[in-house]
Amino acid sequence: MNSSKEPTKFDYVLAFLLFLLFCASCIAIYSAQTTSAQYEENFLLKQIVWYVVGICIIGGIMVFEPDQIRKLSWYLYGFSTFILVILYFAPSSIAPKINGAKSWFSIPGFGSLQPSEITKVCLIIILSHVISKHNEKKQFASIQSDFILLGKIILVAIVPMGLVMLQPDLGTTLVLMAITVGLTFMSGISWKILFPIFTTIVVAVTGIFYLVLRAPQLLEKYLNVRQYQFGRIYSWLDPYTYSSGDGYHLLNSLKAIGSGMLTGKGIGENEVYIPENHTDFVFAVVAEQYGFIGATVVICLLFLLLYHITKVGLLSNSDFASYICVGVICMIGFHVVQNIGMTIGLLPITGIPLPFISYGGSSLIGNMFAIGLIFSIRFYYRTYMFSEE
Asked: TM segments (predicted)?
């Protein structure tokens, strides 16, 4: 079937949404740093610099068509895995432990870099390639073929998940799992296979949660889970009992969000102290200083971003590109739900930032990498002769 490429289309809607998120991020970080004497650094200026770097990354990604990115998928996957291996064996002078996790490279004059943020996007690319290639070669649906595809997905995903869990970084591992689960659901594998597997996973997670409450020493011994991670579960269930420790962040976050009411207290008028309020708990700052209206605006912007990515995926005639969109939606969507959920007490605290809003160079680079893929998909959108469209 012949194909003709339409005139290149820059996605102005996506660019405008990114601009609005940039503005929201700058306002939120400025509000956070002007009301906290915890740090002397200018996080607003650094965030602007990281956004500029992210724009350059988007421009670099758009040089490549989706088919070219697909050809590089195994190289990107291998590179991201190699970096995680280097991080694991690197000395503390290069990769220090922060909050009990060895997740960052310390680069003099540059700051810290978290390679797992890039790993998320590389996992999206390689899984999209594996699934689309398998389905292209599959002549007819069969249980055997579906099991083969499921095995490929597990083998590809388990390597980065295992390396990230060894750091240990439970939050990022959960993001990688969300990406894998989302793409597996959309891969075309029969529900006769998926239903019992995911039912088993739910039962296993329930069992792990029970062990956290009743026998945490077993998880610490066999799954490399650290004691401070148990504290996050305990403080989530009963924050008042742990108000002087792990529950401190959650209680103060709830106080800040509740005190903002409808319109907020105004910029620089926060009364509740929250450590790391420019990163993981930036949503609490928004809710306190700009109230329910400000928090709703941020949520709507993120929802519109996910909605637009969904539209791009539906418009694409490439299975690989559509799977890329699914993976990016799973990644960003999980971040949004988990971050906002933990600040309002619906989910345990995991240290996952709010995409495009929280301060963080590594996180923003990873997200802009993912958005660059969406720009590329839209920019090189192709139509086909004799297609139904």
From this structure: 12-32, 44-64, 76-98, 147-164, 170-186, 193-213, 290-308, 320-337, 357-381
Q: How many CB atoms lie within 10 A of CB 265?
A: 17
Q: How far apart are the first and last CA of the chain?
A: 14
User: Which among 13, 17, 44, 9 has a CA at the least distance from the CA of 278?
Assistant: 44
């591992």: which residue's tokens?
Answer: 173
How many other CB atoms sit within 10 Å of the CB of residue 85? Answer: 12
Given a contact cutoff of 8 angstroms between Cβ atoms, the answer to whether 285 and 28 are in contact is yes
CB 127, CB 157: distance < 8 Å: yes
Phi, then psi, of 101 in degrees rounded to 5: -125, 140
β-partners of residue 3 are 384
Total residues belonging to the chain: 389
Hey, where are the domains in the chain?
A: 6-383
230-265: per-residue pLDDT in tens? 777 777 777 777 766 667 888 888 888 888 888 888
Residue with the two structure tokens 């290149």: 8
* Cα–Cα nearest to 168, from 350, 353, 348, 366: 350
Nearest to 314 by CA among 329, 300, 301, 303: 329
Residue of 89, 93, 119 lying closest to 106 (CA atoms): 93
184-238 pLDDT, tens per residue?
A: 999 888 888 889 988 988 898 888 777 777 777 777 766 666 666 677 777 777 7
**3-class DSSP state of 276:** coil
User: What is the sign of the dihedral through the CA atoms of 144, 150, 155 and 158?
Assistant: negative
What does the alpha-carbon distance between residue 248 and residue 277 come to, in Å, rounded to a whole number? 13
Classify residue 346 by its DSSP letter.
S
273: tokens are 């102290």
